[in-house]
Structures are given as C-alpha cells and as structure tokens.
Amino acid sequence: MSARALRNGLWLAVLALAVGFVLLGSAMDFAYVIPRRLIRLAAMVIAGVCIAYTSVIFQTIAGNRILTPAIMGYEAIYLLFQALLILCLGTQSLVLLGRGGNALLSIVLMLGYSWLIHHWLFRNGRNNVYLLLLLGLVLSMVMATFTQFIQLKISPGEFSILQGFNYASFNKARLDQVIYCAVLVAAACLVVHRTLPVLDVLALGRDQAVSLGVDYLPSVRLQLALIAVLVAVSTSLVGPTAFMGVIVANISYALARTARHRVTLPTACGVAIGVFIIAQYLVEHLFNYTTSVSILINLVCGVYFLALMIRTRGNP
Amino acid sequence: MRPAVWLVPFGLLCCLSLTLGVKEVSWSELWRFSGDAWLTVTASRLPRLMALVLTGAGLAMCGVILQQIVRNRFVEPATSGGLDAAKLGILVSLTVAPASGSTARMLFALGFCFLASVLYVAIIRRIQFKSVVLVPVVGLMYGSVLSAVAEFYAYRHNLLQSMQGWMLGDFSKIVQGNYEIIYLILPIVLLTYLFAQRFTILSMGEGMASSLGVNYAANAALGLMLVAVCVSATVITVGAIPFVGLVVPNLVALYHGENLQRTLPIVALYGAALLLACDILGRLLIYPFEVPIGMTAGCIGGVVFLIVLLRKYT
C-alpha cells in the first residue's frame, strides 16, 4: 500500500471513530447527549493536535526520535508552577489573574524553561541522547516531588482545585475552556504552517541548516516558544500525558514514510486524536469508568516505550 | 577524613532525632524508667530512630548489591522497578486476602519484588546496552510500567488514594508494635557484609566469576533476594524512599574507593546519616507537622543524583 493510501486510511479511521464516539448509544438526543460529546471530542482534537505538534517539532530540533517535551519535564514544571501560584496567592489567584492571566503567566514561565533546556541541550551532551533522557526523567521526578510537597502545605479546598489540574480528564472539559484553547492552538498552528520549510531544513541539523541559509537560533527559538504554548494548553486541558508523544511521533514517521513536516505533522495529529478517542471509548464502554484515560495511556505507551528502548539497544 | 570520625556527627544526629518532637520530654523524669517521658521515648522516639537507621543502612546496601550485579553505577531499587513491584505485590495481597496481616503482605511484596528484579537483571544482561545511562533509563521505564499496572489495578478496586498514602515514605506512623518487621534488615546488612567479596567478583562478569569458582546464577539470585527482603520490609513499614541507594554508594565510591570490605560499613553509616538528616529536616520544616521523608529524601537525593550525572558527563 502506498504511503498516501495509508494516510487516507488513517483519516478515514479517525473520522469513523469520531462519528461513532458521538453517535453510538446517544439515542439521537440532540438536546443534551450529543452536545456534551461534541465538547469532549473537541477537547480530544485540541489535545491531540498539541501533543502531535510538540512531539514532532521537539524531536526535529533535538535531532532524535526519543525525547519529547513531556519527558524533558515541560508538564512537570507546568504543574509545579500551578501549585506554587496557589501556594503564594491562594485561591484568589484564580480570581485575581483570571483564566487569561494564569495562562499568560504559565506560558511566559514555560518559555523560560524552554529556552533553558534548549541552551543546555545544545551546549552539553547533544550527542548523548540517553543522558538527556535520564536527566529529563530525574528532573521530572524531582519537580513532581516538589509539587507534592506544596500540595502538603496548602489547605484542602485549594488542594482539590489543584487536583483538578493534575488529573484533568475529558469528562470535565467545559465549553468556554475548549473555545479558549482552540483559539490559542489555531494561532500556534498557523505560525507553524508558515514555517514548515524551515522545519524541514532544521531537521538536517545545525550545520546543514546554517549553510542552507536558515537563521538558526531565531528559528529554533520561535519553534520552542510555540512548543511552550502548546504544552501549556494540552496540560491544562488533559493533564500530563508522559510517554504518549513518543508513540504518536514514531507511528506517524512509520505511516508517513517521509521526513517532510507537511506530511508528518498532520499524520501525527490523526494518530494522537485516534489514540485519545480509542482510549476514551474503552474507558466509557469496555471498562465502564473503572479506569481512566491517563492510566490506560500511561500503561500502553509505557510498554511501547520500554520495547522501543530494548529493541534499539542504544542506537536510535 | 577517617571514617571513624564520622561516628561523632552520626551520634549527634541520633541524639537530635531522639529529642525532637511535639511532646516535651523532660530528661530528669526519664531516669525513673516509668511515666510519661519514658513511655514517649520507648514507644515512639526509639522505634523511630531504630527504623531510620536500619532503613537508611539497608537501602544503601541494596544499592551497592544491585550496582555490583548489574555492573552499573546508577541502579537502585527505585531505578530497577523494585519499589514499584513491591507496591504491586501489596496491592494484590490487599485484594486477594484482605484479612491477612502484615506478614502475608510482606511475603507478597517480597515475591513480586524478587521476580521483578530477576526479570530486570535478565533483560539488562541479555541486551548489551551501548550506553551506560540507558540501563537506569530502562529501569525507570520498567518501573513506570509496573506502576501503571498497579494504578490500573488500584483504580479498579478503589484503592488509589490509600495506595498513594501508604507508598509515600513516612516515619511518623512508627510506634512500638507496628514496626518490628524492619529488624529483618539487620541480618541482611550483616549478610551483605559477609558476602561482600562474592558481590565484587560478580561485578567482574559471568565468565570471570565462574573461572574464579563462584557460581554466578546462585550468587546473583542471593543478592537479589537480599535486596527484595530489604525493600519489601521498608515498603511495608515506612513506604517508598527513592534515591538513597543510588546517592550514597556513588558518593562513598567518589571519596573512599571501591573496596567493598572496607567501604560497606561507611555506606551503611552514610545511608543511615542521610535518612536521619532528611527526617530531622522534614520534622522541622513545618513544625509541629511533618513533611514525609519520601519527599525530603526524594528532593535531596534527586538533586544530588542530577549533580553527580552532570559532573560525570559534562
């Protein structure tokens, strides 16, 4: 089968999944059931796009197929920041800053973290992927422990708000939040699509990119900024997804059979959305809410990632 | 500095740990060997001190054994799936035999931990990884898979919240009568010291070990069994404490070399001292409440681990 036919098949499958998700067992209740499901579907699409874009772009910049923003601690620092905000300002922070203020502050912080990681990634040990991987994993663990520590200090009421950030799920998605996120993601994606050729060149590595006339540092910084925005959106919408980005990116490379971002990015989006819908479907119908999407995804993607590590034996 | 000199600050830490607490203990009253002060010390402070010292020494020793068997500096119960397997074992015992006591839970945790470690060592030995840091990465991934299985299981049985409660290392629950399992660590520490030479030989690889007349498989299994007993006893009584087994042996190797016969007592001493210091810090930070030691040790150990990694590779 040609790569194009494969991709068309993927989109058909995703479409069928989406239609099935919205309509199956809904009794055609257009007043309540279907609008609720559409909101959930929209949340999944937005989160899927975020995860697909951030993972593929990050792997392009880092020059390997294993590191993703989630592994390098982007999600952990977002959650740590939310906890710190509630600790320092109390629940008034939500009123004081509003949704917009909070999002803006988080994005600024993520930008800082993004540039820090980049600075570090490109100066030391760029050639040692596994060292970076280990550093990322340990850093995430330490930040998660700090977050836990802050949770210990805040009052139970504030804790329950924070818990909402940590274990967000599609079932809780609200319309205003979804619209808000959709606008942000659409803007970020528009910028990415204007720079697609630059991304293709960046994938060749720093020296090649420079000799082909790409203004290297500003381009990379722009992409990292976009990653920061998208990770903030996806974490606020669905919570941490850990290893999902790796599996999504690798499946999309296999399906696309080309390194062009014009092809790999949409394919990755399709894969991510499909994974989310299947997981949500399993949770709702097969497991009857005795498990959660994040647990399922962590289980499956963790196994895949372990298998990937063992299979490649240290030559990615 | 000679290691013996470290006994003095260690003694001071022990004394500090004994005197610290919300309940005032008047030392003059203590000499009557009865009454309130005596009860506080014997029922709560001393058990806590003993548990801290034993856990610290035991976890540090576990790190050494695992590092010798796997031949990698960055392996310890938290980076080889041992802790997560013990967690899964306790969960299974809670659902299979909810009425059974802590002995049954201990046996389940022990079995799961041992099997998981054997599988991990088999994977690592079968696949000759090119990169040194890949070994702990695979271990962390392996642990997170086991942990995801445990979470899946716990969510189904509505145990998620209680699991998070008892997995976080915490010494505040330790009182006379519920911590005695921890004394199992004492023979483990002695046995490890006794077998130190064998573990050193194991670290030279299977070929060298068998040509020196050491049965590789049997000794590796023995080592993993010692680790499993120690980890499960710790998890049952206090919960998970990450990174102690990694940080302490690395720091000791940095300053005192690798002669296990000589360095094992230092490793045990440093491990106990590290836990004591973390515990005292946790008790003071939000006095009169406590920060669980899983957090203080996790933060301090994690940061030290990062520093060791960066110093070694950049």
Automatic annotation (TrEMBL), chain A:
<dbReference type="InterPro" id="IPR000522">
    <property type="entry name" value="ABC_transptr_permease_BtuC"/>
</dbReference>
<dbReference type="GO" id="GO:0022857">
    <property type="term" value="F:transmembrane transporter activity"/>
</dbReference>
<dbReference type="InterPro" id="IPR037294">
    <property type="entry name" value="ABC_BtuC-like"/>
</dbReference>
<comment type="similarity">
    <text>Belongs to the binding-protein-dependent transport system permease family. FecCD subfamily.</text>
</comment>
<feature type="transmembrane region" description="Helical">
    <location>
        <begin position="41"/>
        <end position="61"/>
    </location>
</feature>
<feature type="transmembrane region" description="Helical">
    <location>
        <begin position="128"/>
        <end position="150"/>
    </location>
</feature>
<keyword id="KW-1133">Transmembrane helix</keyword>
<feature type="transmembrane region" description="Helical">
    <location>
        <begin position="104"/>
        <end position="122"/>
    </location>
</feature>
<feature type="transmembrane region" description="Helical">
    <location>
        <begin position="263"/>
        <end position="283"/>
    </location>
</feature>
<feature type="transmembrane region" description="Helical">
    <location>
        <begin position="224"/>
        <end position="251"/>
    </location>
</feature>
<keyword id="KW-1003">Cell membrane</keyword>
<feature type="transmembrane region" description="Helical">
    <location>
        <begin position="76"/>
        <end position="97"/>
    </location>
</feature>
<feature type="transmembrane region" description="Helical">
    <location>
        <begin position="12"/>
        <end position="34"/>
    </location>
</feature>
<keyword id="KW-0813">Transport</keyword>
<protein>
    <submittedName>
        <fullName>Iron ABC transporter permease</fullName>
    </submittedName>
</protein>
<dbReference type="GO" id="GO:0033214">
    <property type="term" value="P:siderophore-iron import into cell"/>
</dbReference>
<feature type="transmembrane region" description="Helical">
    <location>
        <begin position="289"/>
        <end position="310"/>
    </location>
</feature>
<keyword id="KW-0812">Transmembrane</keyword>
<dbReference type="GO" id="GO:0005886">
    <property type="term" value="C:plasma membrane"/>
</dbReference>
<keyword id="KW-0472">Membrane</keyword>
<dbReference type="Pfam" id="PF01032">
    <property type="entry name" value="FecCD"/>
</dbReference>
